[in-house]
Prior knowledge:
The complex is a heterodimer. Chain A contains 1 helix and 24 strands.
Amino acid sequence: MIRIASLAALCLLMTLPAAVAQDMPLSQVLVPGEHWQLVGSGYRFTEGPAVDRDGNVFFTDIPNNRIHRIDANTGKVTVFAEQTARTNGLMFGSDGRLYGCRSGDNQVVAYDSDANHTVIASDIACNDLVVASDLRLFVTDPAGRRVWTIDAKRNKRVVACGISPNGIILWPGEGTLVVTERNQPHLWTYRIEPDGSLSHREQYYQPLRLLPGQARPGSDGMTVDTNGRLYVTTSAGVQMFDPTGRMGGVISKPHRGSLANVVFGGPKRNIMYVTAGDRVFQRKTRVQGAVHFLKPPTTPR
Amino acid sequence: MLNIFTRIVPLALILLANATTHAQDDYKLGPDSMVQPNVPQGTVTKHSWTSTKVFPGTVRDTWIYVPSQYNGKTPAAVMIFQDGAAYVNTKQSFRVPTVFDNLIHKGEMPVTIGIFLNPGTIPATKAGGKPRRNRSFEYDTLSGQYARFLLEEILPDVGKQYRLTNDPALRAIGGISSGGICAWTVAWERPDHFSRVLSHVGSFTNIRGGHVYPALIRKTEAKPIRVFLQEGSNDLDNLHGNWPLANRQMAAALKFSHYDYRFAMGTGGHNGRHGGAILPDSLRWLWRGWNEPTAGGSKKN
Lengths: 301, 301
């Protein structure tokens, strides 16, 4: 079998390099009989779901200035931090800290395990962020219509402008950065250059599903799985794309309200969590979320 | 390791013309697909192209076939193939250089320069980062972007070295699978530049919205495009659509709108065996009347 497989693989490489992509229907993601379950409610606006090494999921309740923690094993929701200055996007770094966008005071910060925060950069009207394995940050600034990068020495600079960025994520392997614009029927991809600059912008993920009569998809937060699928929250639901930018399906919303963001958590990182207005929901899947913090940082901050 | 093989093997088996032979795919190549004594052979050269304008950052392999009858004085006809590696190969199903040699020698198609283009990739700069594979974005997207790539990058560059016609009646384009719908899209967007389309197991399905073409064709003033569609009854049925049904819809719409079309429905699957076996006849039909003053292209189909 292996011999035949090797031969076939070799022939494939000889004939149609990069020509075909694996089909990725929703059936590879969803578990029959598993549906959305309510994790918590009574919040005002939930955002920024982030998973840590153990699969615990943290999310913010922006207007209430709190960050909550969902225990990976018990599912119990507790308060992790208060007075968070409208902290919005969150993601864990390879140094074990929780990076966040304190939109209320325009600061990008890192929370330690005791919820004490250190300012990483100031004067950025930040919305969402992604942390590379080397602790380089990419931060969206919708009001300023630009994307920032902050290197491990805390130098900040603008690396993309002219779009109204919102959600932001890295591919597994970190070669490509993806950015959403709420009003555009596509997601942007950029190549990340060694110095952190962005190049070769493309409307790679498109078309997005639009609700009937609407021209704007309302795309917001994103996450990726270990097979390179990308998930983006939209008005129509969680839209799943394969690594070649082809939409593979729309996962229904858990309620009639809006969706803001998505992440995979739990001990196996196979539970999809969505922040959805005043609530948070979860559902079991057949895939595993990809994270960038499993490698140790090359330059400790 | 096994996982890789279990993924690649089905693709390889589906795609490879020579790896295995199923009964329904038991198509044989004829003499026009074989090198014939006393037929002069053209030359094939391999190149690479880095796009700076339309698909910035992409790199791809390209090949140029120049028939022995090309004299550098008379502008040559042009035929462009997507997934060029599969078409330029003279040991597999299509063997375009050999078929061109034979048909040009008999005057059944014009003296034609063949341009074979692989899809682009954007290599990652980061170690371990995956390249962005641009095939689906370039081929499946319903827009004039790929046509612009041909008209603004590829044809001017090849035109520096060879005298190429600007007559749409003498410009043809073809491809397999997503390359098939790509060829159609190029002519649909720019019939002022391309008038002859060859599609093998074309993906007129909802990979990126291409399933709408039959509806568009029925409700759009007919364009001066001649099109040959090859399809197989055992072709794909997946999340993007059903290929045999989609091609039947295309053929019915082309008939309804009085296009000059031919539909060859075989019994094969998603590969080039049937298309390769009938390639000489397909090209004879596609190019018929090429040397008559009123034939082809924008004047008369």
